[in-house]
Design brief:
The chain has 329 residues and is an alpha/beta fold. The protein has 2 domains: 5-115 and 296-326, Medium-chain alcohol dehydrogenases, catalytic domain (Quinone Oxidoreductase, Chain A, domain 1), CATH 3.90.180; 129-268, 3-Layer(aba) Sandwich (Rossmann fold), CATH 3.40.50. 29% of the residues lie in helices and 28% in strands. It has helices at residues 45-51, 121-143, 161-172, 187-193, 201-205, 225-233, 257-261, 276-289, 295-298, 307-315; strands at 5-13, 16-24, 34-43, 62-63, 67-75, 85-89, 104-107, 113-114, 153-155, 177-181, 197-200, 216-221, 235-243, 265-268, 299-303, 322-326. The strands form 3 sheets. Strands 3, 5, 6, 7, 8, 15 and 16 form a 7-stranded mixed β-sheet that branches. The protein has a 6-stranded parallel β-sheet with strand order 11-10-9-12-13-14, sandwiched between helices. A 3-stranded antiparallel β-sheet has the order 2-1-4, with no helix packed on it. Helix 2 (121-143) crosses helix 3 (161-172).
Length: 329
């Protein structure tokens, strides 16, 4: 256990957060109850912020990576034993706690769930926080009564990780999905995932009024700010929006009119601190409601050595779909 292994560590350098590769030992890891040999992690927008030193890491030094899949090596928890395949999504990894960009990691047993039989570790990380979050959004819309017969459902930021999975899952469940993307080159990709049509970011905005013509039975919003405000204004009577992202900003310039005149619901979706029961429900639904044949179109595998440049790309909006990180490459 004393052998060194590689990790991407964020540290303070002259008052700025900088990420770099370092060799660690098990003795360097946090004092948590389960030691995991990590196989794969992922690249999310939040990971891009962390790796590029944008202040996500609230404790330093910090190992980045909000997702991981691996094999238990040691466990002080009765819930897990050596050899178990496990996954983690969120729980403050790369922000408050060391995350998946490491070949070994110690983690709290409360954060872990066992890898569903339906997925390999690489497939689970192809899904990662993005796919898991999109499933939580779909569950929220279902519980709010947004069913396929109610009308079109919009997905904003559709070419990103969460948006891609939302399009694919909703389409498989029989919804008429309209995808919104700011990049014209993604339109064919989104139709391949199941979108019945694709509209531009500008068309999504409509007239930008706080109360607009009814258009959508429901929506999954990955963008926030003006886009989310415009979508809320266009939701049909009794419809709902599942909001899970802020790529466009964390403000919300809207009014109470859609809520009190049309009974619109704004459903906040958090994937970071969800209970184990909620996580297990979401992953069970992913096993049945996600078409794995789409993985080749939605994902690509990259070595951990390329993380710095990949992180910069995702912040520039240049990543389509999902990036799985092989931490041993």
């Amino acid at each position: 256990m004393s052998d060194s292994f590689r990790a991407l560590v964020i540290e303070d350098q002259d008052g700025k957060q900088k990420a770099g590769f370092k060799n660690l030992t098990v003795a360097d890891l946090p004092d948590e109850d389960v030691l995991v040999e990590v196989s794969y992690s992922t690249l999310n927008y939040k990971d891009g912020l962390a790796v590029c030193g944008k202040g996500i890491a609230r404790r330093l030094p910090m190992v980045g990576g909000i997702d991981l899949a691996g094999t238990v090596l040691e466990s002080k928890s009765g819930e897990f034993k050596p050899g178990d395949k496990v996954i983690v999504n969120g729980f403050g990894l790369s922000e408050l706690f060391w995350g998946g960009y490491s070949q070994k990691q110690k983690l709290k047993s409360d954060w872990l769930i066992k890898l569903p039989d339906a997925f390999t570790m690489q497939e689970a990380m192809a899904i990662g926080t993005a796919g898991y979050t999109s499933m939580l959004c779909v569950l929220a819309l279902e519980k709010a009564g947004v069913t396929p017969d109610k009308g079109e459902v919009l997905v904003t930021g559709a070419a990103g990780g969460v948006g891609s999975f939302a399009v694919a899952i909703l389409a498989k469940l029989g919804y008429n999905v309209v995808a919104s993307s700011g990049r014209e080159e993604t339109h064919e990709y989104l139709k391949k995932l199941g979108a019945s049509s694709v509209i531009s970011r500008e068309e999504t905005m409509g007239k930008g009024r706080p109360f607009d013509k009814e258009r959508w039975a429901g929506a999954v919003d990955c963008v926030g700010s003006n886009i989310l405000a415009a979508v809320i204004a266009q939701i049909n009577y009794g419809g709902a929006v599942a909001a899970c992202g802020l790529a466009g900003g964390n403000d919300l310039p809207t009014s109470v009119l859609p809520f009190i005149l049309r009974g619109v619901s704004l459903l906040g979706v958090d994937s970071v601190m969800a209970s184990k029961a909620v996580r297990e429900e979401a992953w069970a639904r992913l096993a049945t409601d996600l078409d794995k044949s789409l993985f080749d179109d939605m994902t690509r595998l990259e070595p951990m050595s390329k993380l710095p440049e990949l992180a910069a790309d995702i912040l520039k909006g240049q990543i389509q779909g999902r990036v799985v990180i092989d931490v041993n490459a």
